């Protein structure tokens, strides 16, 4: 035991009990998780390098896509290597400070990813509903302001929760029934009243992610209405194809979050390992899918990758 920063007697480290009730899960999950991690890191790296080196991709939409890739890389690196170390070497310990840093990064970068999807949805709305005004609205300056807003809003709002959780008195209890330092998994170990933590988690999540999703679906609703009015031959198919990849990824992102919330609400009817599994997978599957879907469905990116490969040869 070591003294806490707030002066109470607490713990110097936590132990992540990752699928201890189902040890076979660790074995079976380690292989696909490793593959997904390598795909996510490799695909996002290729996408970033392609956008950086290809002058034709130096456009606002691709800058937003670069931001999304950076967020995915950080989320993957924050969670997956530690989970694999637990699976392979049974190294469950995580220091007190590292645990709350991980909590902050996960909360903050989830919110930033959601906010980035919202800005990308607005980009597509302007491109399809106001095509003539697109070059004057979606500029590099707009992207810079949007990036600053994404970083500032989510960086500031999400910092309260890990700070409050770190100030709790843990009374020597340090075994987290999770693979990551999720707020509710950590704070319930405390001897203090954690009602405020729960309220902040609920209010913050629905305020940030909920408002983003409302604006995202509003944008795509307006896009769909505009697309249905298009008379030119092939214009509707082209517009839907342009937005298709964006909407697929946003829908997957929001669906996984919704399933995660529902499993927490019905935790008495669902195995405790299910929300833990969703927690882990949500840090790697979207990160692996985002660059692949964009790479396959966006002709400019596909051509940029092909040009880079030819130069490499």
UniProtKB/TrEMBL annotation:
Gene Ontology BP, a term: cellular response to lipid
InterPro entries: GPCR_Rhodpsn, GPCR_Rhodpsn_7TM, Olfact_rcpt, OR51/52/56-like
Keywords: G-protein coupled receptor, Membrane, Olfaction, Receptor, Sensory transduction, Transducer, Transmembrane, Transmembrane helix
Topology of this chain in the membrane: Multi-pass membrane protein
Record localization: Membrane
Transmembrane regions listed in the UniProt entry: 31-53, 65-89, 101-122, 142-164, 206-228, 240-262, 274-296
Chain ranges of the G-protein coupled receptors family 1 profile domain: 43-294
GO cellular component: plasma membrane
Molecular function as annotated in GO: G protein-coupled receptor activity; olfactory receptor activity
Keyword DNA damage found: no
Role noted for this protein: Putative odorant or sperm cell receptor.
PANTHER family (alphabetical): OLFACTORY RECEPTOR 56A3 (PTHR26450:SF40), OLFACTORY RECEPTOR 56B1-RELATED (PTHR26450)
Official protein name in the record: Olfactory receptor 56A3-like
Species this protein is from: Canis lupus dingo
Encoding gene per record: LOC112667924
